[in-house]
Amino acid sequence: MADSPSEQRRKFKSMVPFFADDGALLTAEREREALRTAVVDLDLDPDEAHGAIRQAAREQGIVLESKAVELVQAFLNSTPKGKVPRKRFDEAVTTYAALTGRPKDKARAEKRVKSLMDKMALTAKRSALGSKRWYNRIKADT
């Protein structure tokens, strides 16, 4: 006998921590895997699965990287002319690192923010000396 939809949702919510890195951070890639599992294996509606992930994360203290990305994107979008000054970039990196619960992992946060800027077609603003070397040194996530 098949489980009821509410039983399937409960099962899925209990599975969410297994998708999180160290049980604390659910990266965007792992969130997609979890959604795929919910929709394909457990036959949940995609919206219901997404809601279950958010609810499970809230209840179990799991940080969703997708929420951090949304906030950082909004922060970066407020730059004039699509040029992000170094100070704003550093603030975005600090915000991303804090929201994902990994404030000491600045290198990963820098890579992630740079890749977000690339996706959003934003560029780094040149320094007073006319250089973007600080930005070019950061290797973006692929």
Task: Estimate the mean pLDDT confidence.
Answer: 88
Number of domains: 2
The residue ranges in which pLDDT falls below 50 over 5 or more consecutive positions are: none
Shape: elongated
For the sheet with most strands, the description reads: 2 strands, parallel
- Oligomer kind: single chain
The helix-and-strand class reads: mainly alpha
Q: Report, as a whole number of angstroms, the end-to-end distance.
A: 44 Å
Helix content: 55-70%
Strand elements, count: 4
The whole-angstrom Rg is: 18 Å
Strand content: 5-15%
Annotate the secondary structure layout.
Blueprint: H1 5-19, E1 25-26, H2 28-41, H3 46-60, E2 63-64, H4 65-77, E3 83-84, H5 86-99, H6 106-119, E4 123-124, H7 133-136
Parallel strand pairs: 1-2, 3-4
Helix pairs in contact: 1-2, 1-3, 2-3, 4-5, 5-6
Overview of the structural elements:
With 142 residues, the protein is mainly alpha-helical. The chain folds into 2 domains: 5-61; 65-136. The chain is 63% helix and 6% strand. The chain has helices at residues 5-19, 28-41, 46-60, 65-77, 86-99, 106-119, 133-136, and strands at residues 25-26, 63-64, 83-84, 123-124. It has a two-stranded parallel ribbon. Helix 2 (28-41) crosses helix 3 (46-60) and helix 4 (65-77) packs antiparallel against helix 5 (86-99). The longest helix is centred in the N-terminal third of the chain and has 15 residues, at 5-19. The chain is elongated.
Describe the structure using short key phrases.
mainly alpha; two-stranded parallel sheet; single chain; 2 domains; 6% strand
